[in-house]
Amino acid sequence: MFWFSIALLFVSLVVMMREDYLYRAISIKYIVVFILAALLLGSTENHLSDWIFNSAVNIGLLIFLLLCTQVYYKLRFKQKGWFVDKVMGKGDLLFFMALGFVFSPLNFLMSLSFLSIISIVLALPIVLKNGVNQKLPLISYMGLGLIIEFIIIYNYDIPVGNDSQLISVLLNG
Questions:
Q1: What is the pLDDT at residue 173?
Q2: CB atoms closer than 10 angstroms to residue 111
């Protein structure tokens, strides 16, 4: 079941990356498959109670980050409405939510940070060339970072669903 969920996650991610890069939009069926694959992977990697706890904490962290970003957006740009409608897509939010089903809270925050840095580095040449108002394929850039992250995670056998195991790997590494 583990390898099936990895394959499903990878295939749906590659299709979403392609659609996002070409059209700046993704089909709902691929994001649903990605979420289902993330649910399957997260639930097979952890005990059910740990997985439910991790998912709830991660969704709470995501909501907190989104609310903070919304407050900043309203104060900074003095605009009505949600920043999600103007700055990023709803598919990006669903992508972040799906990642919350896979990782433990510490790994989730580290993954979001790593994927954000990768996105900034990859988008910087486009922004410098085309200007700030250029729409960027966020899932494409973050998807590339996620593939790199999964290669590192499974190459070094790092558990993604347990913070204490990750901390011991990092300290004893």
A1: 56
A2: 24
**For the chain, domain boundaries:** 2-172
The string of DSSP letters for 43-78 reads HHHS-HHHHHHHHHHHHHHHHHHHHHHHHHHHHHH-
Give me the count of residues in the chain. 173
Cβ-in-10-Å burial (0-12, 13-18, 19+) of 37 comes to buried
Question: What is the rounded CA–CA span in Å between residue 149 and residue 135?
Answer: 24
pLDDT of residue 76: 85
H/E element holding 40?
A: helix 28-45
From the list 94, 124, 112, the residue with the least C-alpha distance to 149 is 112
pLDDT tier for residue 153 given thresholds of 50, 70 and 90: confident
Q: Give the whole-angstrom CA distance, residue 139 versus residue 24.
A: 9
The residue assigned the tokens 């904490």 is 57
Confidence check: pLDDT of 84 > 80: no
What is the value of pTM for the model shown? Answer: 0.86
Q: What is the largest CA-CA distance in the chain?
A: 49
Q: How far apart are CA 16 and CA 27, in angstroms?
A: 8
